[in-house]
Amino acid sequence: MKSVKRVTGNRRQFLTYASAAAAAVTVPYTFTARRASAQSKSERLRFALIGVGGNGTRTAPVGKEFADLVALCDVDSSHLAYGNDLLCDGKADLYSDYREVLARDDIDVVQISTPDHWHTKILIEAMRAGKDAYCEKPLTLTIDEGKLIRKVQKETGRVVQVGTQQRSSFNLFNKALAVIADGRLGKLKRIIVGIDAGGWSPEIPVAAVPKELDWDRWLGPTPVMEYRYMADPKPGVDRKYTNGHTHFRWWYEHSGGKLTDWGAHHIDIAMLGIAAAGQNNDPVSVGGTAHHDVEFKDGMPVQHNRYNTARAFDLNVAFADGDVTMNVRHDVDNGILFDGERGRIFVNRGKLVGAPIEELADNPLPEDAINKVYRGMPIVGNDRPAHWANFVHSIEHRTLPISDVHSHMKMLNVCHLAGICCRLGRTIHWDQSTEMIVGDDLAASMMSRPYREGYEIEA
């Protein structure tokens, strides 16, 4: 499907509202959003949404407060129709091929909300095409893809914000980091990261590909596999099992399971916490145990008709600072427990608790404590709105956003190492200085994957 119309003209210049916010960082989001919406058309960014599924329709409405959404791209025509009605009042230009979007010189920004296995190829080509990008997490499918992205980002200077919006949560996660940075916990000794169990499925039969879905293009760089789908047989249960939309994250062919799903959020905050405490968060090894519902040989699933990512896990990450360890597991509360010499706190998307938090009533943090952990950038809104505001601010000033690709990949590499540990059933050793797995040739070979012919990534 090509666009219903093509827009011509020179690339629009813009003046983002975020520069004004820099002088008034306490202005409520509701006010600043109205200001952004009131800007003239010629001053606002124009962006395209590539991948109009769940994350796309959740994040794009926030982006619309700061930029004009003019184009949608998806390999499923039903997604395009739904997204166009929901997000654009039926007025967006529609595409099935992202390359047509990148070819437009009047689009400033792309939001990449595809399944994980497409992130790297589209992002690299977007940067090469002169686009800034908001890319959902996890940024990559493999460790080596992260090296390619970082290389291209440095070469092009494009601004890339990764969708780990917990980095822009000021009342919870940034407040927790500020408490740690202010020494309220002392030296960190132990961190427990709870990310819930992975997905389960019965055996899923091969099914006819929906007529609206281009399955071959959905697979893209990953190996050819048969489309599988099954509705839950239990009466009254509205649940489905598939290797396609939404459930792609439970297949190693397309994702990394819980470890790169929730792990990309919570392990991120855990490692930022180590750095905030002034300790070395360079990973050196990942070991532990995991359970899969299918058999593996040499790190690859041998059964292909049910979800194959780790469903249960108890993993330990060691760091260059030998005083602190991180335990990543499925069977504790979702969130992060920071345990230090002077106290402990627990934080997730619903709460921030612990004695050091209660003590803030009588001994508050310095006024600039949260701003310091936010690298001194303007604070506008909270969570996703703040994350998009930071992205727009970084575009105007050509600076690294709060979730830049370089710091994100240091964290995400730990998630990938954890996945390799689960698949091989042994401890994986890592050299941060060379960014290589050491002492294990098979594990090292899993830092990359071959791409299907016609979908290679050229960096």
CA-based gyration radius: 22 Å
**Secondary-structure arrangement, i.e. CATH architecture of the domain at 18-166:** 3-Layer(aba) Sandwich
- For the largest beta sheet, what order do the strands appear in spatially? 17-16-15-7-14-13-10-18-19
Please report the number of helical segments. Answer: 15
Low-confidence segments: 1-41
User: What percent strand?
Assistant: 15-25%
Give the helix/strand class. alpha/beta
* Major sheet details: 9 strands, mixed
The CATH homologous superfamily of the domain at 18-166 is called NAD(P)-binding Rossmann-like Domain
What helical percentage do the residues reach?
Answer: 25-40%
Shape: globular
Number of strands: 19
As for the CATH topology of the domain at 18-166, it is Rossmann fold
- Please report the first level of CATH classification, the CATH class of the domain at 18-166: Alpha Beta
Q: Overall pLDDT, averaged?
A: 91
**Distance linking N and C termini:** 27 Å
Pfam families: GFO_IDH_MocA, GFO_IDH_MocA_C2
InterPro entries: Gfo/Idh/MocA-like_OxRdtase_N, Gfo/Idh/MocA_oxidrdct_glycsds, Gfo/Idh/MocA_OxRdtase_bact_C, NAD(P)-bd_dom_sf, TAT_signal
GO molecular function, one term: nucleotide binding
Protein name: Putative dehydrogenase
